[in-house]
Amino acid sequence: MNRLHSIINKNMAGNQIFVMAITLIVLFVYTNAFLKHGSLINELTLLYTSESNKTVVHIMEILTSMEFNIITRFVSIFSVLYIVSFLLWLISRFDLAFFNPNQHLTLNFFTKAYLYSLYISILDFLCQTIYMTFTKQDIPLHILPYYMVIFITLQCIVILYNLKIRENKLYITAAFFSLLIIALDIAIIYIGSVYQ
Amino acid sequence: MGNLRNIIRDPFYISILLTTMIALLFFAMGFQSGLNEELSEADYKLSFFDLLFHNSFLSLLNILGMFTLGIFNLYALFVNAFDLGNILNDSIASSGFGYSMRKFLPHAIFELPSMIISLAMGFAPIFLIILKANNFISTRYTFWFFLKKVLFFSTIILILNICAAFMESFISANL
Known about the structure:
A: mainly alpha; B: mainly alpha; membrane (chain A); transmembrane (chain A); transmembrane helix (chain A); transmembrane (chain B)
């Protein structure tokens, strides 16, 4: 019984179906709060209540629906997982060629490394949900870019930790990915400052 | 059972299957939306080569959508399937089911499969990555094998477009 328990505990966190299920539940809770208190949704709702064009109203209804918001977020989270993992896997070819020619790293190894970082995304959604539920509003625009930067950087750290850079000699991959994240962080802060 | 396993392990077949399902969903949404968009008469007055060029250009755009990893294709799929449901709903409401089907079926019998296959090709790279990441794909799926499949499906799309243009310009217009 103990052994079974330890197997479940050991594999559960890295199981893709489990992470998908957890993400779906958290997204359901988050979307519920976002549709009630999100400023973007409120603006959209105000916009389309004064709109007479049936097509526009119908599209707005789809955009502000629960299903649309959950599906788009879920699909984008897992698409990014596979795209970033594939990108890292491609770059790791250079590392393997230069530093570690005898080693073979599969795409699955990178997907697994990214999968654990999704718990940071889940934490991000939970924090936003709690904030919106208690304050009845979105995270303010002057804080949001820094909040996003913190969670993206945390996610990057988890991915790099799971890749075991020193052990697998993934130096070029780590450098490229860190640069990519720094560029993304700067872009978020810049765009945030422009649209305040 | 073996065939089913091969289908769900092939990025092209699985993307065709899923594209068909999503297209049906968007079609149903468009059909019941009640927006009643009318089809312009100009669509029935194009020549064989105009139609072939027009459809092939759109198919090429859909195939090139694979470089956007299917984002463009998702948009194109929504617009096309939603509009199709919408137009068919209006046609049935104004001209009746029999007349609408007589106009719609010859028009769609080649064009719809061509549209679905070309849209599905845009999703193939992302499905290839997903299947590869989960070790579901066979080892024969190399870069060149993938390109061969792209060429194979592009040929099928071109043949379907020729049939659709022939049908629309010579048969559908005279019905």
